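Morning run. Coffee first, then this:
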Amino acid sequence: MRVFVGIPLPEDLRDRLEELAAGLRFGRVVPAENMHITLAFLDEQPEELLADLHEELSGLYLSAPEIAIDGLDLFGGDKPRLLFAAVRPNEALSDLHKKVRQAARAVGIELSHERFRPHVTLRRFQRLGFGERDELERFLTQQGAFHVPAFRAASVEMVQSHLTHEGALYETLASYPLGQ
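And here it is:
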């Protein structure tokens, strides 16, 4: 099963981010219902390990971090591959990220060693066509300072990702409430 652990976003924020991403006419848009903050991408895992991780996560006290969107940015440098809403890093969010990754490792799930850069993916790009790079730069200049009021995350979810030709379909396998 292809799975990640992430923080779901409030519906009103997802709707605002989807509306914002609609301002670009190219790239594959991420549907509002798929918008989240990934804490750990687990890749393909057997159900037994996921059941062990569920037990591990269910037994943890996870504090609720404050989430603030702090502008728009790109991953991919000179060849952008995705547009995202940046999440302002904070100690509580970093601690939550570490606890989730420690729980995954404790049950035997190997994880990549990428730097944690919290974000919400809005659009994915294959290759930018003629004029699209300029349009993307204009979009970032006009919309890049996008901010919304902070909110406190309510839960963390274990989510299965089903890949299709139209994009990923997500199925929540388990939800873990966060303490206040």
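Residues 161 and 170 are 5 Å apart (CA to CA). Good start to the day.
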